[in-house]
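Exercise 7. Given the encoded structure of a 335-residue chain, write a plausible sequence.
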């Protein structure tokens, strides 16, 4: 995607491969000029001219040597969030005379924690088949496959440099690794989704339900400053129907821009909204935890912040209902 090009709708979905979500580049056949780990960094690629190391000009990406024999270069990424891939971006930003002419992206689903040799022996499903690449461009490719994958392989035809590999999609958790009686029902890694949001001027609301704590303010959700009488809000579709027992509203890192107050509302399906948490004052840079009295089955939660501001994380701890547990298993089986 170049300047002025509208990104595909799936680009708003989580990057399943991101290092922020514990993704890892577990193998590559070459990284002579720039290390493979750069492929999945969350930050946008940077470039400083005339900066040299023993490998040559420093590039913020993965770059292999110039091939003098037939063959291709490969890197295998373990997805931090296994799931259904909706699209991939092979980002060649800052690579102008040294980008690959084409690439292939493949994927596989493997249980447990396989070694690189075991992964190389797997049967790989092609998601993007030998597509042309442009230099200094976010090359976007749609993926039409509804299977759940745990690993992706990027193949360069034949060699060159790629700044970032983004693998956007829907996380799908393995029910065998989840306790249905005690989980974060909103968690991105378990299948929680942001389905609506009033404003995401500074950062995506996907950050709210991402794994782990936010390490900086930019890893939370922050809205623009309001100059009217309304307030900002976000709606989360839970991983499956459940009963929420505790809520965590975390304003860590937000000091002069935390919301003043917040409320939580819930609903089941398309039903009426009911109150989970009354309007409650929030403190800056604080991890707030609240016990909830409502015991109704819930599928969606709306967080309202007053009037605007930023929040690091939203956690909604509880238990799946029998209906929710059945749905959780169905989603996994169908992918």
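Solution.
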């Amino acid at each position: 995607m170049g300047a002025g090009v509208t990104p595909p709708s799936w680009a708003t979905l989580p990057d399943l491969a991101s290092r922020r979500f514990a993704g890892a580049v577990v193998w590559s056949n070459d990284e002579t000029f720039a290390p493979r780990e750069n492929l999945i960094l969350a930050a946008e690629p940077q470039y400083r001219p005339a900066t040299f190391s023993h490998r040559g000009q420093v590039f913020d990406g993965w770059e292999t040597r110039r091939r003098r024999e037939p063959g291709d270069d490969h890197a295998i990424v373990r997805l931090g969030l296994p799931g259904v891939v909706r699209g991939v971006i092979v980002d060649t930003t800052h690579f102008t005379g040294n980008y690959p002419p084409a690439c292939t992206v493949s994927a596989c689903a493997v249980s447990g924690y396989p070694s690189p040799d075991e992964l190389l022996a797997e049967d790989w499903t092609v998601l993007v088949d030998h597509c042309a690449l442009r230099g200094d461009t976010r090359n976007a490719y749609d993926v039409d496959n509804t299977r759940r994958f745990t690993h992706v392989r990027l193949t360069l035809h034949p060699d060159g440099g790629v700044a970032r590999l983004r693998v956007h999609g829907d996380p799908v958790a393995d029910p065998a690794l989840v306790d249905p009686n005690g989980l974060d029902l909103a968690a991105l890694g378990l299948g929680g989704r942001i389905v609506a949001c009033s404003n995401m001027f500074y950062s995506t609301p996907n950050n709210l339900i991402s794994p782990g704590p936010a390490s900086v303010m930019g890893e939370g959700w922050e809205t623009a400053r309001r100059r009217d009488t309304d307030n900002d809000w976000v709606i989360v579709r839970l991983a499956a129907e459940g009963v929420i027992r505790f809520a965590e509203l975390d304003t860590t890192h937000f000091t002069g821009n935390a919301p003043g107050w917040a409320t939580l509302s819930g609903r089941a399906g398309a039903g009426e909204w009911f109150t989970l948490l009354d309007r409650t004052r929030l403190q800056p840079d604080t991890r707030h935890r609240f016990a909830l009295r409502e015991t109704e089955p819930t599928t969606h939660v709306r967080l309202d912040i007053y009037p605007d501001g930023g929040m690091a994380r939203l956690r909604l701890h509880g238990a799946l209902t029998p209906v929710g547990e059945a749905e959780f298993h169905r989603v996994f089986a169908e992918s």
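Remark. The domain at 175-334 is CATH 2.60.120.260 (Jelly Rolls). Students should compare their own answers with the one above.
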